[in-house]
Write a structure and sequence with these properties.
Radius of gyration: 51 Å
Largest sheet: 6 strands, antiparallel
Order of helices and strands: HHEEEEEEHHHEHEEHEEHHEE
Number of helices: 9
Structural class: alpha+beta
Strand content: 15-25%
Oligomer: single chain
Number of strands: 13
Shape: rod-shaped
Number of domains: 3
Distance between the termini: 59 Å
Length: about 450
Amino acid sequence: MRRLFGSVRARATLAATAVVAVALVAAGAVVLLSLRSNLAGQADTAADSAARGVASQVARGVPYRELDLDDDHPVQVVDENGRVLAASEDLESISGTGVRDVTPVASPDARQGDDEDLPEAGEVGEVTWHGQGRATVDGESVAYRFAQVEVTDQRDETVLVYAGASLQAQQDAVHTAATVMLIGLPLLLAVVAWVTWTVTRRALRPVEAIRREMAAITASEDLARRVPVPGTHDEVARLARTTNETLAALETSVERQRRFVADASHELRSPIASLRTQLEVAVAHPELLDLDGAVEDTVRLQRLAGDLLLLARLDAGEGVGDKLVDLGELAVRCARGRDGVTVEASAVEVAGSRGQLERVLGNLLDNGQRHARAAVAVTVRRDGDWAVVSVADDGSGVPVEDRERVFERFVRLDEARARDDGGAGLGLAIARDVAVRHGGTLTVRDAPTGGALFELRLPIA
């Protein structure tokens, strides 16, 4: 049971059925109340007509015992003292009018007489009351709606005429309607539940296909697989496309990590092997120890470990911070002590991590010095809302087809590899990664002196 109602189909079916049930019950209640009210109104109208008919006879002076009383409408004529002056012939009992007697008083017509001074007719008043009660007519007890009419007879005395209209038709109609609703409601709810169950099953079929494929991908660890995309243009299709995009990004990320680990292992192997060889030689022949080479390999290993650690922190989402950094001052500081480097810097502040930005400038200067013939020029300026740092060298430059590849990790062009003095191909990759995380860009193009010009653009604080 718990598993069943944990299903989206089951919950959707239950919710749809419940909503329809509430709506149908509410609509049925409104229909029944409206039907009852309309039929009660019709009964009131019939009672009004019957009461007025009797009242008009009383006003014309028709003797009480000679009143023409409709057999379909129980009638009482009552004086101001509550005495029954006239009543329907077959009326056996009555309730709801306030007077339960159904037997007229003796000689009720003695009050009317034939006095010549009497006016020709009395006056029929308005309907002053409606009520509901019961009456037994000819042995059958039925609910009635009663109407009360005041009438003044020829002696200027006020009497009350009560006439009723049966509610049996109303009760029968309401009962029939309620029975039809009670029979039809479960059937209709069953149809709604079946339709909802069927529709949701067909709607969720692509979702189940996506789930099965994702489970297969998880089990096989084959990120090259993709989930099926339905041919619709709904949310499920968008979910499938987004899932495939996520899988593609995950595949790229995993492949990048694998390549990163492989390249890092390869790069670490050389300095470690060289350092081990030198130490082993030193153990066997201390006089042959190459201290300069050991220190160089150690420094190279330290730099590579630092680069790998920084890349790991960046990939883990290390924040860039929001401290103000003066790029002009930072460029001067990074260039201090470097041979052949000239700086022309203006004070331009950006928000970010001072340590990361210093690493970017240091990597760009290292790259420029490795490839320059004689000079590296650094400029820091403001260009609208951007701070621009340019590092230009007078080397051989970067071919157009390699200007994006040069920013990939562990990528070193052939000429650079031949002239490399220990770089692992991570400096430019780190520099671009940091630039992008600070909301900027890092590009390369030809320098005026014929070499490469690396341009870092960051938003001004």
